Amino acid sequence: MIKVAKNLASRLMATPCLVCLAVPARRRGFCTSCEEELPWQPPGCQLCGVALGEAWSDPLCSRCSVRPPVFSSCHCTFAYEAPVSGMIRQFKDRAGFPEFRGLSNCFNEHFMQHYDDSASPWPELLLPVPQHPSRLRLRGFNQALLLARRLSQRSGIPVLDNSCQRRQGGSAQRGLNAEERMDNMQGTFRPSASATMMPGRRLAIIDDVVTTTATTQAMATALSDCAAARIDVWALARSNHQPES
């Protein structure tokens, strides 16, 4: 009877799965079934990370083969699809920190596993994408910075949270095609005083969602001007439905 009572108490106190809300969650915040069904980002373009169709034989997507990015690689843990897309919006717009912890657990393990298993050199600094000033005032936090700090706790890699300054103003990205987004972001970032720490260093830009890579490309351009040795991009999720170019 005592053992049954303890088992019942442990189930009542167990954290529910972030997706189904019914089954107790495992270590990463999801039950086994829901975790398996998450929209994990498949292998894709070797540069920008966008998913490629099964019939696509080239290692690069059509955009990167014509206009390669400044950064060396882009890695995303999830495709920006339900339920991950809703969880990210919940975190960003409603301060859904349980969702953030669950997704960042998966992100951290993806990051660590990649460098453990590959010949790629580990980054020496984590650089979160700066939040637009008006958005930062409205939201109260920079989700990329929180993601980088949690990854730093797991990896031991320091965070440089003021690597770039983001200019005020600028046209909105919504409604623009891929090339227009790239052009619109030119000159958005400029290195800050901490740029003296970057020459010859391997850097990892950290963001929550990558759509066309226009933002990370603009930031990588500013960082490459500081003679960084290598720049990788890491994000929670990747949109595989690109605006028409």
Strand order of the largest sheet: 1-6-5-2
- Uncertain stretches: 1-12
Structural class: alpha/beta
Query: CA-to-CA gap between the ends?
Result: 66 Å
Largest sheet: 4 strands, parallel
Roughly what is the average pLDDT, rounded to an integer? 86
Number of helices: 9
- Topology pattern, helix = H, strand = E: HHHEHHEHHEHEEHE
Share of helix, binned: 25-40%
In angstroms, what is the radius of gyration?
A: 19 Å
The proportion of residues in beta strands is: 5-15%
Which term fits the overall shape? globular
| Count of extended strands | 6
Mind explaining what this structure looks like?
With about 240 residues, this protein is of the alpha/beta class. The chain has nine helices and six strands; from the N terminus they run αααβααβααβαββαβ. It has a four-stranded parallel sheet, with helices on both faces. Strand 5, helix 9 (about 215-225) and strand 6 (about 230-240) form a beta-alpha-beta unit. The chain starts with a helix and ends in a 7-residue tail after the last strand. Mean pLDDT is about 85; it is low at about 1-10.
